[in-house]
Here is the input.
Amino acid sequence: MLWVKAFHVISVITWFAALFYLPRLFVYHALSKDKISIERFKIMQRKLYFGIMMPSFVIASILGLWMLQDYAWQAFSGQYWLLIKLVLVVVLIIYHFYCGYLVGVFRADKNTHSHLFYRWFNEFPVLILVAVVILAVVKPF
Ligand code: HEM
Here is the structure.
């Protein structure tokens, strides 16, 4: 199971690399005026979302669920850190799919949010990352 845990952490890292970079691309895309930049951001966003963010999310989830059913659900049953972690992960998954929706909005040239909106939007996964890693490693309660 340590191999599963190692690859769980690796896929979580690549998932977050994309979760941090994609909204950054939204910031620059929202600021762009010329066609060449706009079309380039569309390609970068599509490749990042479907090529890295989605596979990383799927692998992290499969490996996490694997550990849950193998030992973790029983070993940590009734411990709040695990329940809170899973709730925060669900919130992160909603954020993930909202990013996918925004990729489609930008592709259709229908974005209405400012670059400032995306700058704040970009900060959200940081909060989840800090909370979930502390919960999973420290297991405070
Ligand atoms: C996608 C759904 C997820 C599930 C079902 C899941 C489930 C699990 C399980 C069962 C463990 C083993 C716990 C242990 O043995 O101590 C684990 C470990 C871990 N998870 Fe997740 N996880 C998920 C997502 C995440 C996310 C999004 C993060 C980071 C933000 C994360 C960070 C970690 C870390 C750092 C460990 C290693 C903890 C340690 O052994 O010290 N996981 N996860």
Remarks:
- Residues 76 and 82 are 7 Å apart (CA to CA).
- The chain has one domain: 2-138.
- The chain has a mean pLDDT of 97.
